[in-house]
Amino acid sequence: MDVEDKMITLKNQQVILDYDVAELYGVQTKEINQAVKNNPRKFPEDYIFQA
To answer: How many other C-beta atoms lie within 10 A of the C-beta of residue 50?
Structure first.
């Protein structure tokens, strides 16, 4: 799977949706979101946003 194929432009920024990140890592979407919630210091400040 090509990461660049999963990228979209949203609010003038290149982003990858959480379910695509989960697919890249071979886990469920809830696992990605839980990792970000439980370990916010391990991710860049602008790593996640909710619309």
So the answer is: 5
